[in-house]
Design goal:
heterodimer, A: 14 helices, 21 strands, globular, B: about 350 residues
Chain lengths: ~575, ~350
């Protein structure tokens, strides 16, 4: 008995020694701490207002790069609002707010020429890079050159490749952009994600022949914004410190971005360890609102979940070519019920592609109601009846079974299953197919949509928000095929009337006239049932109660970061 | 012995080639790296085609494999899309130590991996130590006190622990020790990350942030391994030489710790030898749930983006580690067990 006691005792001692040793392991194998503790520093006496507080933001995806040239992912682009401002940002109501530009160019102030082909932008003369060098028009010219350089593997050349003829600096603070034709979408696309510091990056480009591998891409120590980049440890965190020299000095001392996956993010929000949560899900709304430490915030960003239909007579189901059948499909789908049952009833179906991009959605158009009786009548009228009594309508020996495709996302699979049941009520069959990454592949890569291997495809998309242009999805010149593998119109929809309107809006630089054109476009697409909205798909955020003054926006979410404060 | 090591290493080379070839082929099934490059909308077809060309993804698979293996500094590539290869390549290839650059971040793969490795090792080595110690203690004690209350309790608990998925354990621990404890006004543990930004990256902070992930990862392994130790201990304790030792009048403590335990741990060493290379690969689920910046998360993030240079880098690193640690285990075995001799 005594021996056993000894055994137990020695085991306990052994365990505690090892535990102590384990405690010692932590600092020993820890990577060298090249990072200063981010604790409160001496209050800065000379500054007009002392900064204080750290805002903690969680990102559920890691930014791939910080250089806007290579930003191929939303989290990379939204980060620039902290440290790399562009000409202007957009506020919560989508109004442009000048940043480096002295004012927003208009035809009235002479910034936009009468023919809409030349944009003259006056830059503020008091803006400096965080290292003290002045920001000049030459930085913008350099940025344009870098977008177009063949040796740079940039994310996109839109709009410079297709619409911009040249970018010039007529003097240090005057930037002139010449378009190949009047270009209505300039406000949301010209230097939207910031400007590159020529004095830092030109030498790198000349030495390496490319900016692809520049250290600045992941450690941009020189920027222009309310905060300055200080460190980024991939998959862990990113830190931006206050930049007191920015034209709108920030009130927070630091922005701390923590990389955390969905499950980690939710726990951190509920524990009060995260001030801003990103990319949330509708199902998290109640949990967060009831937590007492944070609130759930809905911010429209132009996105709508919707159906894209196949109009190519060679590949689509013949029924899809009949507008009345398309309408019957919509009438047979209870979209209200889908949003109620699967999305917590917090969103509604849009009538047009532009309902989430104010002011371009026509408020007079209402989503088609759920009316299965009318759907049956329309299908009967169109000749689709169940002649062989197998439960599915048919015509000329062809069953009315539609190939309904989507990505692998669980929510979409659920919606597909629910819709299949609803359609069965009126005798429409559905073949449900889900794709992986190849869903969006182009024609050359055999993508299911590009090659027409679908009748109805579902995904969430937006125009170049807050600009409404998305005409490439439905214009005749973009129809994808063997002769045009780069075409963006995978639906193969071609309507000459719509094409004329798309052409007009692209060059219409008067906002009111452009809005009217979009009302007409929306009406045609609504009547012809060219696109079917399932639900408005805004950005879903959470903001902690201790973080004050946050006004998110759809296009540039962190546009007012300099006004944020922390209250304990 | 030296001959044996050389022979084993020579065998490993064709093995690694074959592994790399098979993995590279499997990567092709992962999906299209370009498809996941869109901001939130699919990339424009014109950009898609340009990116494919500039990244070399328009080349046949065997060319891509060759470039990955041997680099492309001996050939020219077409960057501007006019069909004429004009730009000299810059990559050296794996054989010359260049694992290429990530397709999404353009950063060197080796840099990405070596950056995470310390974090992963810190977490995983701690876990492995905790697991070894506790499974030995629990296993030995259960074996010595067979069918006692402690043994039955531990047996029951280890079945519960072993059958719980790790994400459930992790989330339960986080909700209990972080959210609920905070609500109840008790001292609570931090949820995610490696340190609290208000305090900074101090050893104390890191240790505090390690408690929950280490606990979650250890529970399942301890549950499994302690059963293993228990059964091999039970086997040994019934053998004749243990009875002889007892008959000699040795103290029970000495019999168990010296005579029985040393032999019972031999199979356990094989198990740990197999475990070690996978410590490098990190813990995918746990690292994700606790936002721990390790190689497991690196792997899962880049899987979602079909970033095959990074995936190949991590997989090859693991493959090489498996080969090396297998060899080390075999050598260690021959020292520990006099019955085994390496020719």
């Amino acid at each position: 008995m005594k021996r056993n006691l000894y055994l137990l005792l020695s085991l306990v001692i052994l365990a505690s020694i090892v535990l102590a040793a384990c405690g010692g392991v932590a600092p020993a194998t820890q990577p060298p701490t090249d990072i200063e503790p981010a604790g409160t520093e001496e209050p800065v006496g000379t500054e007009p207002a002392a900064t204080s507080g750290i805002a903690i933001i969680s990102f559920v995806q890691q930014p791939t790069t910080l250089n806007p040239l290579y930003a191929n992912q939303w989290f990379s682009t939204i980060t620039t609002q902290f440290w790399l401002k562009g000409l202007w940002s957009f506020d919560s109501d989508n109004n442009p707010i000048p940043e480096i530009a002295a004012e927003i160019p208009t035809t009235e102030n002479g910034g936009l020429s009468e023919d809409g082909k030349t944009l003259t932008i006056n830059l503020r003369d008091d803006v400096t890079w965080s290292d003290g060098e002045p920001v000049t028009a030459n930085d913008f010219v350099f940025t344009y050159e870098m977008y177009m350089a063949e040796s740079n593997v940039v994310a996109t050349r839109y709009p410079y490749e297709d619409y911009v003829a040249s970018v010039e600096a007529t003097d240090d603070h005057t930037l002139v952009v010449n378009f190949t034709e009047p270009f209505a979408a300039w406000l949301t696309s010209i230097f939207q994600y910031g400007v590159l510091p020529e004095h830092v990056l030109r030498p790198v480009f000349e030495a390496d022949g490319t900016l692809d591998t520049a250290a600045w891409n992941t450690a941009p120590t020189v920027g222009v914004g309310p905060f300055v980049f200080t460190e980024w440890e991939t998959d862990s965190h990113m830190i931006f410190e206050a930049n007191p020299n920015w034209i709108n000095p920030p009130r927070l001392e630091q922005i701390f971005i923590r990389m955390a996956d969905d499950a980690a993010q939710e726990v951190a929000i509920l524990a009060g360890d995260t001030d801003i949560g990103t990319f949330l899900d509708w199902s998290q709304a109640d949990t967060i609102n009831n937590s007492g430490v944070a609130k759930f915030v809905i911010q429209p960003a132009g996105y709508d979940e919707g159906w894209y239909l196949n109009f190519d007579p060679e590949t689509t189901h013949p029924a899809m070519l009949d507008a009345n059948v398309r309408k019957a499909i919509v009438l047979a789908t209870d979209r209200e019920k889908i949003t109620q049952d699967l999305l917590g009833g917090q969103t509604v179906p849009p009538a047009t592609f532009w309902d989430s991009t104010p002011p371009y959605g026509d408020p007079d158009l209402k989503p088609y109601p759920y009316d299965p009786e009318e759907a049956k009548r329309l299908l009967d009228e169109a000749g689709w009846v169940d002649s062989n009594e197998d439960g599915t309508r048919d015509k000329d020996g062809r069953e009315l079974v539609l190939r309904y495709i989507a990505s692998q996302r669980q929510l979409r699979k659920d919606v597909q299953a629910v819709v299949q049941q609803m359609w069965a009520q009126v005798g429409i069959g559905a073949e449900l197919v889900n794709y992986g990454d190849d869903f969006f592949n182009g024609y050359a890569d055999g993508g299911p949509m590009a090659t027409g291997n679908f009748d109805i495809a579902q995904w969430s998309d937006a125009p170049n928000f807050p600009d409404p242009d998305r005409s490439d999805y439905w214009s005749c010149s973009e129809v994808a095929g063997a002769d045009n593998p780069d075409g963006a119109n995978w639906q193969d929809y071609c309507n000459p009337d719509l094409d004329v309107l798309f052409g007009q809006q692209a060059t219409e630089t008067d906002p009111e006239a452009r809005k009217q054109l979009y009302y007409q476009i929306g009406k045609i697409m609504y009547d012809e049932v060219v696109w079917v909205g399932l639900w408005k798909d805004p950005d879903l955020w959470s903001i902690s109660n201790r973080l004050q003054g946050v006004k998110l926006s759809g296009a540039t979410p962190f546009w007012n970061a300099h006004e944020w404060t922390i209250s304990e | 012995m030296v001959n044996y090591i050389i022979r084993r290493l020579a065998q490993a080379i064709p093995q690694l080639f074959l592994i790399s070839l098979i993995l590279f082929m499997l990567m092709q099934a992962f999906g299209d790296p370009i498809a996941s490059l869109g901001v939130r909308t699919p990339p424009r077809p014109a950009d898609r085609e340009r990116l494919r060309r500039q990244l070399g993804l328009d080349q046949p698979v065997y060319v891509q494999y060759l470039v990955w293996l041997a680099g492309n500094d001996w050939m020219k590539i077409d960057m501007d899309g006019d069909g004429v290869a004009e730009t000299p390549g810059k990559r050296l290839g794996v054989l010359r130590g260049d694992f290429g650059n990530s397709l999404v971040s353009k950063r060197p793969v080796l840099e990405l991996i070596t950056e995470r490795l310390p974090n992963t090792l810190l977490l995983m080595v701690t876990v492995e130590l905790v697991v070894i110690i506790f499974s030995l203690i629990i296993g030995v004690y259960s074996a010595v006190r067979k069918y006692s209350l402690f043994d039955n309790l531990v047996t029951g608990l280890s079945f519960v622990g072993y059958s719980m998925p790790i994400f459930l354990i992790a989330l339960l621990l986080m909700y209990l020790f972080s959210i609920n404890f905070k609500e109840w006004g008790l001292p609570y543990l931090p949820t995610v990350g490696m340190f609290d930004p208000e305090v900074g990256r101090t050893p104390g902070q890191i240790a505090l942030h390690m408690i929950l992930p280490v606990l979650s990862l250890s529970i399942i392994s301890i549950a499994g391994y302690s059963r293993y130790v228990r059964s091999s201990m039970l086997e040994i304790l019934d053998l004749d030489y243990i009875r002889t030792a007892r008959a000699k009048g040795l103290r029970e403590m000495r019999v168990v710790m010296r005579h029985a335990l040393r032999n019972a741990t031999l199979p356990f060493i094989t198990l740990i030898g197999l475990d070690i290379p996978f410590l490098l690969a990190g813990a995918v689920v746990t690292e994700s749930i606790f936002a721990w910046p390790g190689t497991g998360r690196l792997f899962i993030e880049h899987t979602a983006q079909s970033d095959f240079p990074v995936l190949m880098g991590i997989l090859m690193m693991t493959a090489i580690a498996v080969v090396i640690f297998q060899l080390l285990t075999d050598i260690a075995y021959s020292y520990l067990d006099p019955r085994i001799r390496i020719e």
